[in-house]
Amino acid sequence: MTDEAVAVAIEVDDLGVRFRRNRRGRRSIKDMFADASRRSRPGEFWALRDVSFRVDAGESIGVVGKNGQGKSTLLKLVAGVLLPDEGSVRVHAGVAPLIELTGGFVGDLTVRENVRLTAGLHGMSAAEVAARYDEIIAFAELEQFQDAPYKHLSNGMKVRLAFSVVSQLDEPILLVDEVLAVGDRAFRAKCYQRIDELLAEGRTLFFVSHNEKDLRRFCRRGLYIRDHQLVADGPIDEIISQYNADNPIP
Amino acid sequence: MSGRRSARGRYLHSLWLLSARDLRVRYATSWLGYLWSILDPLVMSLIYWFVFTQVFDRTVGATPYIVFLLSALLPWVWFNSTVTDFTRAFTKDARLVRSTSIPRSIWVNRIILSKGIEFLLATPVLAAFAVFSGATVGWGILLFPLGVLLQTALLVGIGLLIAPLCVLFTDLERTTRLILRALFYASPVIYALDDLPGAFATVGAFNPLAGVFVLYRTGFFPDQWDPYAVLISVLITVALLVVGAFSFRRLERPLLKEL
Q1: Of B4, B5, B21, which to mutate for an interface test with A (greatest number of A Cβ within 10 Å)?
Q2: What is the mean pLDDT of chain A?
Q3: What is the average pLDDT across A16-43?
Q4: Which of A134, A141, A162, A209 is the most buried (most CB within 10 A)?
């Protein structure tokens, strides 16, 4: 990215994605090959519809909304691991996805092998992995376990390692989905610090969380998703108060 | 687009990493390691060799029969294990598929590559038996790499077609296993294509594996050369690639929602 003031990092236009309501819904082969727009079946619902927004490079955006309203779906669409049925998502820079963090790790391989593989799968070259390996291990505090099989690590260690690898990715856009809810307090503080550093370097952050404190801490702008639609887009404080007004604590 | 590495470069790098991972897991978890990838075809070959040369009077295939068997059994094991794994291509690593945006065909191709490497590692067994049984090797051995190429293309076509379907229709996993079992006897592995009586030979040529096995066998048995079988196999492969690419694009979207 050049320093031409604002470059657009993420463009989302009229985005819509549809799911089946029950897993057992009948589905014929013919149906699946039919054009997506020509189908509208009673058993399906729009998980997101008519969502449009733009994110400039360097912005930090928090997504707010109740469970099951489409927040994580939106994140997956931006990450490119889900494809829209309508509209488009254009992401103009590399993405470091902090979702399904421990997904790429293999139980039978050692920590060392796992770091190489996972970092490589997320786009790091072998040379980069070698250069950052020590840092990754140090951040995860796993110096003693480098040659232990991954399956022997505790759950906390696994998440530490995964966060450590993905947060070392040199991608301009960071997608974070609730991962900060895990780990002990000390490590969480470290994660926060790491994200602060990344933001200070000018990364773009796309953040999904229920935690008001986290949202206010990292984000400037908020998107409010209600009933599978984008209902508000503005400064994070306003968005959070709107959300709280809609969902009073009984 | 971090600029450091092209999309294609990243794809190939990831493909290599995933295949290497598969092999490493395989070899890290069992001390027999490499032996496993040759043991299966070896035991099967010895059984068929025993049954067809010691028990029955063999009227099919060619001599030395063990080389005749192995030259199609090793590729068959590659084919069989790859197609079996296609049925779980996406579900086995669902979490990884859900968290990385690498072009989705990689989950098919990585299986072909890692099983293909195991196949190549097993070929010295064939060479050893060829030497010890006194088989002659002709110019046709140059067709062997073409066999590898054709089989790879065939597997890509089949994988693009069935891997997404297996996620969407769970029955298909069992169906595939059943079809594979039938296909083993319907393919010229323990016999040659021209051993089939009458109309079956014509029908049998439409099995794309027939042409693939011809390419593997011609080096040891020049009279196995059958350009029509190869041509049909190439045409079916191309057709499968086209259909597979088309259906994969169509099914990618519903597939990702199911994971």
Answers
A1: B21
A2: 83
A3: 61
A4: A162
Q: Which of A27, A95, A104 is the closest to B96 by Cβ? A: A104
- Tell me the two tokens of residue B99: 């968290």
Return the minimum-mean-pLDDT range out of A25-29, A107-111, A144-148, B26-30: A25-29
CATH architecture of A8-94+208-246: 3-Layer(aba) Sandwich (3.40)
Domain residue spans of chain B: 7-258
In this complex, do B95 and A32 lie within 8 Å of one another by their Cβ atoms? no
Written in H, E and C, the secondary structure of chain A is CCCCCCCEEEEEEEEEEEEECCCCCCCCHHHHHCCHHHCCCCCEEEEEEEEEEEEECCCEEEEECCCCCCHHHHHHHHHCCCCCCEEEEEECCCEEEECCHHHHCCCCCEHHHHHHHHHHHCCCCHHHHHHHHHHHHHHHCCHHHCCCEHHHCCHHHHHHHHHHHHCCCCCCEEEEECHHHCCCHHHHHHHHHHHHHHHHCCCEEEEECCCHHHHHHHCCEEEEEECCEEEEEEEHHHHHHHHHHHCCCC
Q: What is the pLDDT of residue B2?
A: 42
**Which residues does B contribute to its contact with A (CB < 8 Å)?**
1-2, 4-5, 10, 13-14, 17-18, 20-21, 24-25, 28-29, 93, 95-102, 168, 247, 250-254, 256-257
With pLDDT > 90 as the criterion, what percentage of chain B qualifies?
44
Considering CB atoms only, which of B20, B98, B250 is closest to A103? B98
What is the residue-averaged pLDDT of chain B?
Answer: 88
Q: Is B69 in contact with B190 (CB distance < 8 Å)?
A: yes
Chain A residues touching residue B256 (CB < 8 angstroms):
81-83
* pLDDT tier at B134, thresholds 50, 70, 90: confident
> Residue A2: which pLDDT band, with cuts at 50, 70 and 90?
very low
* pLDDT for the residue numbered B150: 96
**Axis crossing angle, helix A155-166 with helix A126-140, rounded to the nearest 10:** 140
Q: Does A127 touch chain B (CB under 8 A)?
A: no
Contact call for B98 and A171, based on CB within 8 A: no
pLDDT of residue B156: 97
Per-residue model confidence as pLDDT tens digits over B160-219? 999 999 988 888 888 999 999 999 999 998 888 888 887 887 888 889 999 999 999 999
Q: Could A32 and B21 be called an inter-chain contact, meaning their C-beta atoms sit closer than 8 Å? A: no
